[in-house]
Amino acid sequence: MTPNGLVRHPVQRSIFPAIKAGALGYLLKDSTPQDLVDAIRQVRRGEVSLHPTIARKVLRELAQPAGQAQGLDPLTERELEVLKLIARGLSNDEIATTLIITEATVRNHVSNILSKLHLASRTQAALYALRKGLAILTDDE
User: Fold this and answer.
1) Which of 6, 39, 54, 84 is the S-S candidate for 50 at Cβ 3.0 to 4.6 Å?
2) What value does the mean pLDDT take over residues 12-39?
3) If DSSP codes are grouped into helix, strand and coil, which group holds residue 65?
């Protein structure tokens, strides 16, 4: 859910992780076969091919002032706890045991964390936590 209370569309959740992972093209399901062929040709030439709706979302995100964390939804207190445990290398089962919650709840928190931070994997989430100082690596862990 976004800060203004709107539910984030599933496409919006996958755009930024895909781009961060190196995607040069992103089309929507309703794109025509010709759109797909054109996009493949553009990407093959090393060009970027984004559906206009996606391009607008990316440009809006980039146009936000730096102080607004580029549209990131704030993590809940529990999501921060889960993120810190991910950064320590704990599995979903270990996190569930530590926080006394179900593994399904942990999976839900992990999914929300990845979505809110526009990340593609637990590894990226762990690195994010370390870079932001939310977790530290020590020899005694």
Assistant:
1) 54
2) 81
3) coil
